[in-house]
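Supplementary notes for students who missed Thursday's class. We covered one full example, reproduced here. Read the sequence, then the structure, then the short commentary at the end.
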Amino acid sequence: MRFEIITIFPAFFAGIFEHGIVRRAQTEGLVGIGLHDLRAFTHDRHRTVDDRPFGGGEGMVLKPEPLARALKSLGIEAKTGEHECDPTHAVNSHSMEGAPASEADRRLGARVILLSAQGRPFTQAVARELAKVERVVLICGRYEGVDERINELYCDMELSIGDYVLSGGELAAAVVVDAIMRLVPGVLGNEASGEFESFGAADAEISTDEQGVPRSQHGAGGLLDYPHYTRPAEFAGLRAPDVLMNGDHLQIRKWRREQQLRKTLKNRPDLLENASLSAEDRRVLEAMRKEGAE
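Structure (token representation):
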């Protein structure tokens, strides 16, 4: 899998991608990351990438021409077939979702993403879908944003990593790369690590198991992860739960599921609406709610 990042600050990523799993994935050839300086696609001596917004207002906007050239250098053509952004041409707002196969083929298996505070939320489910793509092209916005014609002509989706505003899309790009990359087969040392975690898959979607040993984990199914403990068994007067040390996998599994439900109910009750819940899960949740009310 390969990531292409278009940015005016390519040096921003130097430290981020040189450590941990991201570095190992690149060294082993499982993931490739290309950094593309937007200023290299300008034609004036000042290497201008931004201009004042039409209609007035604060700040500056990233110009369409350098971005169009940068995308073209990566083999990404406009959805309408134009080779350059033409401000006089009618804009086609057609999305890649539902696009004909020939268009997807022409884009060489790539998905073009604009990182923007106005985008749809970036979730683990989105990360899982994008992990199946050959190339992910990330456009890092700056200033007041990107000329909307780039979004309409080239981008398959806008993504936001949270309901807040950043100085630019570089931090968001690093988050997106990390979240997707760890789902690429072979990147994690233990393949099950990507299944048994917050926002992970439901039990029905998980095939990982230990032969002859009952699994001690539930698939998150959209819930938060359960709390984790390690040695020493007692620390600062607090003891790790005895159930985790008795070797009874079924009891551990039951306890962990209850903790998933409890933590999600406390920290992210909104996730319960779309989570994969069994009848037993709903019974436990109801008991927890009554317990809280009392």
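Commentary. The CA atoms of residues 77 and 83 lie 6 Å apart. The chain has two domains: 2-181, 198-293. If anything here is unclear, bring it to office hours.
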